[in-house]
Each structure stands twice: as structure tokens, then as C-alpha cells.
Amino acid sequence: MSQTVDRALSILPLLAEGPADLGQVAERLGVHKSTALRLLRTLHEHGLVYRQSDQRYRLGARLFALAQEAVENLDIREIAHPHLVRLNEQCGHTVHLAVYEEGEVLYIDKVESRYPVRMYSRIGKPVAITVAAVAKLLLADLPEPERRVLAEKLDYPMYTARSIPNAPAFLKELATVREQGWATDLGGHEESINCVGAPIRGTDGGVVAAMSVSAPNVVVTADELLTLLPLVRRTADAISREYSGSNTPANTPAKEGSS
After folding, report:
1. Cβ-Cβ contacts under 8 Å for 80 (sequence gap 6 or more)
2. 92-145 pLDDT, tens per residue?
3. Please, are residues 109 and 77 in contact by the beta-carbon 8 Å criterion?
4. pLDDT tens, 16-52?
5. Residue 215 near residue 196 (C-beta atoms within 8 A)
6. The whole model's pTM is what?
7. Residue 178 in contact with residue 257, Cβ under 8 Å?
8. Rounded to an integer, what distance in angstroms lies between the CA atom of residue 147 and that of residue 174?
9. Contact partners, residue 71, CB within 8 Å, separation at least 6
10. CA torsion sign, 222 to 224 to 229 to 231?
11. How far apart (Å, rounded) are the C-alpha atoms in residues 80 and 209?
């Protein structure tokens, strides 16, 4: 039975490459045409493959419906939380998870620092969109025209001398973040607070959320916090793999023109 299931599932990635006829399927599986036909008929009955008028088979609509339903039912906060807690246990600093919704970047999870000095951020609260590391990561993933439109609409409050002052500077920062695959806020929102973050990617490689580690200067310097970047990226990558159901690394910088 397990061999039958394995063979049936092996048909799906083959058809993902494009329609194939019975002979091609049988050849790829290394089985007789009669065996391949039985497998195809079963998959067809469940809507996972479809037989075209030219007698070739392609992926069925039911497969796409199932995939969409699975994605819609994924809860990134539930998946990410154990990883955030583990990261907090390793470094001791405040860990945030954020998403981009309706023009705002919102914190959806937070694990508090074990140090006495705490941050005032709250779950459900919008972040300072022009300076926060998580905001840079989420907005950097937008298509270039959308980034430009958004950047022109934003206000650029000078929270500190290190805040991003205008749209051209913000777009330059987003381009850098998109290229390198990580982001920082080194005193851009509060002089005494530094932050380093990494993106969490979905099945299509797009950024679905962003996570960060933040700490005040009285606990660690900016340079000391930056040494945690590899750990932060590994954590984000682990969340990405679990969220997307993939065994391959997900946190690779996107090329310009892709979303």
C-alpha cells in the first residue's frame, strides 16, 4: 500500500511540469501502463488530476483548492511562537513577530526580555513603519511600484537623529534590505533601543511575516546585538520551513521584480 501511495504522489510533481500522457507517466514511474492508468484514474476520481481532450493529464482544480484552503488555515503566530520562545531563552532579549495588513505593520506576538528594562511595544499595536526593522522587511518585499507609491504617502517623523528622513532614503533602505535579506533599527525609533530582524517566507517565497530581537543599550551594545543576526536568521528560516511545509531553506533574498 505504501508503495502505491508513493507512486501516486510521484505523479503530482510530474504533472506540475506540464501535461503528460499515459506513456510518459508510466515511464517516469517505471511501471506498466496499466498500473499508471489505475493510479491516474484514482487521482482523477478525487479531482487531483484531470484528463484533457487530447488524453493527456494535468493537475486538477481540487488540488489547487486544497492548497489554498491549507494556506488560509495556517496561523503564522501559532507556528512561530515556540520558535520565538526558544530564541528568547537563548538570547534573553525581547522578540517580536509582525505582519503587514491594510497599510500598517502590526505586532502579533511578543516574548518579553528577561532583563529588568522592558520595551513598551504591545501586541496589536502598529510599529513605527519608517524605522522599525520588521516594517522594513515586510515593505521591502512589496513590488517596486507599490513600494514607491507607499513611500511617497508616508510621513517621516524624526524620532531620533538616526530616523529615515524622506522617501528616497526609505526606498534606498528597502532596496538594501531586500538584497541582503535582513534589517536593523539601530536607534532609529528610540536612541537607546537597537533591533535586528529577519523575514519569514511562505510557500511562494514571499514574506508573510517578520521577526526581530530588540534590546536597550544598557543591556547590550548595537555591535553585540548584531552578533545575534545568524541566530535570528536561523530562527526565521526554521519558522519559514514549518509554515511552508518545506525542507529547504526559505530565507534567500528576493530578486527585484519578484514579490
Report:
1. 97, 109, 200, 209, 211, 239, 243
2. 999 999 999 878 899 989 999 988 776 777 887 889 999 999 999 999 999 999
3. yes
4. 899 999 999 999 999 999 999 999 999 999 999 999 9
5. no
6. 0.70
7. no
8. 8
9. 202, 203
10. negative
11. 10
